[in-house]
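User: I'm curious whether this sequence folds into something compact or stays loose and floppy. Could you predict its structure so I can see for myself?
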Amino acid sequence: MVDLIRSKRAGREMTTDEIEWMIARYAAGEIPDYQMSAWAMAVYFQGMTTRETADLTMAMVHSGEEIDLSDILGVKVDKHSTGGVGDKVSLILVPLVASFGVPVAKMSGRGLGHTGGTLDKLESIPGFTVELDMAAFKEQVKTHGLAIIGQSEDLVKADKLLYALRDVTSTVDIIPLIASSIMSKKIASGSDAILLDVTVGDGAFMQTVEDARLLARTMVNLGNAVGRRTVAVITDMNQPLGEAIGNRNEIQESIQVLQGGGRKELQTFICELAQIMLDLAGVHKALDEIVSHLTNGAAYAKFIEMVRAQHGKPEWLTEPLEAEFIKTVSCSKAGVITKEAALGIGLVAMKLGAGRAVKSDVIDFEAGINLHKKVGDTVEVGDEIATLYSNKPITAELLAEFESFIEIGASSAPHKEILEIID
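Assistant: Here's the prediction. I'll summarize afterward.
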């Protein structure tokens, strides 16, 4: 391992055998963390070639359990987002795609910091379980056509170990390691086709379109190279997605969209993503036909089917939020909303109790923020911009902090969600 660290530090390309040896020995506990940390830092400064990144990805896939979905009929599709604020896409997209008879087998993650987690949002539904074993996961996809669960502990073992190490050694933000981490999990999960939502901007991990494009293209190439049809979209995350930021309130907004309501731009964005996923499965639909599955109840029925299959209580979904403290923020001047800083608003939601500062934090499902105005909306003095919910007192300082992330001006540039599509 010392030789491999020295070689990568000098910028030399590792062989396939070297990468496979290193990952297998690390997953087996034979290479200590301090040596793997040194290697990760060498990669941080020297990078990896496309071939090295592909080899690293597949070595991590083979380091743990691999899921075989071949006995489920049809093209199985999956979706991954690099994270953001108010990102309830999977809650709407998965049942919408499944309503066309395309099986969706999805493993999701939890939220940390300003980014929300799909699993936390689903667990805000009483009784909903995200911890299914692989047999139950496959059976649900086979029977109902969709499932969203937590990642298996045995899936991509090396990635779990390496990611935890990168997190504490400041080697997270390097594209070959990000791409291999994401794609190893997606490939090991067994789906035939993958849609990648690479967010960019203030509330995203990628801060520039150039970096997002490089990450997207790297992951698309990795997926296609191993026989998974893969498409990436680069999407804007300079403002929160939709109106709700939190957990239970994001479930409520998702239900609105699944029933044909919600903000028009969110509905359109989800339907455009659904069209891409359906195309990946060989099911070609016009946008108006996809929208019809929101308005005619087909997508909502599929969501309720998933909730029941995973032991949730659908009768609870219409219950109002029950936060003890509620504060409304109003406009102090007239104009147009020009900015709603996603990162700052996400951190305020976390401080209200809707997210985690560290992994051990307990989430308050009732906490969160509902935005009543979005970028581009016209406002008058006294109009309500947002409502904040929490089960702990909402201080004047936190309200002032939230207000500092909202800007009102004379006009705003047109906003669009999908910036680029890479296939």
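Summary: The mean pLDDT is 94. Residues 325-409 form a domain with the Aldehyde Oxidoreductase; domain 3 fold (CATH 3.90.1170.30).
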